[in-house]
Design goal:
Shape: globular
Structural class: alpha/beta
Helix content: 40-55%
Largest sheet: 7 strands, mixed
Radius of gyration: 18 Å
Strand content: 15-25%
Number of helices: 7
Order of helices and strands: EHEHHEEHEHEEHH
Length: 197
């Protein structure tokens, strides 16, 4: 089972950021399935963790649901990270979550980056803010990142970009050696087979 963790930093409910995140997750699951891998998708909604993230920044350790979210990202085979654009960059909540991850958490992890904003004027945020962030964290960002302005939703162009980016993420996961420990109960040898040997 391939674990895909979606980190979404939309502040409203529902949000265009979450809508884009869900589209990317579905397309990635489909691309993985086409490559013969089943996907286990987990969504981390940062809006619900805002207070815990602030507490972590002040105390130095995560607790409760935030600890679970951090552990999920640490054990992910791939991460889809989606942020709204505020003041020409990622949101403070988005950055704060990645600030609380321990060193090495994302080492070599394939990451699909995406952002939403009201207008296409903010599209360079992917290359000027998100790509440097994930490069600094030693993640492995995919070549194609996805930006969606308000007018892009429902367009064929956005669907094509989502499919392309998801395909690249799936390819990166399928080519990558598994770094996380496998589930010991995923492929169990029946007891009678062990006795027969």
């Amino acid at each position: 089972m391939t674990k895909v963790v979606v980190v979404t930093a939309g502040l409203s409910n529902p949000s265009s950021t979450r809508i884009l995140a869900d589209q990317l997750a579905a397309a990635t699951a489909a691309a993985l399935a086409a490559g013969g891998a089943a996907a286990d998708v987990e969504v981390v909604e940062l809006r619900d963790l805002a207070h815990a993230i602030t507490d972590n920044l002040l105390t130095g350790f995560p607790s409760g649901d935030l600890a679970h979210a951090v552990a999920a990202v640490a054990s992910a085979d791939a991460v889809i990270a989606v942020t709204p654009v505020f003041s020409a960059s990622y949101s403070g909540l988005f950055k704060s979550f990645f600030d609380v991850l321990g060193p090495g958490t994302l080492d070599g992890t394939p990451v699909l980056m995406a952002a939403t904003a009201g207008t296409a004027r903010h599209s360079l945020v992917l290359e000027h803010a998100l790509r440097p962030l994930f490069s600094y964290l030693h993640a492995s960002p995919t070549s194609t990142a996805v930006f969606a302005a308000a007018e892009d939703f429902g367009s064929r162009g956005l669907t094509d970009r989502v499919d392309r980016a998801a395909g690249e993420l799936a390819d990166a996961v399928l080519r990558r050696p598994r770094l996380h420990a496998a589930d010991p109960f995923e492929d169990v040898t029946p007891f009678e087979d062990l006795l027969g040997a």
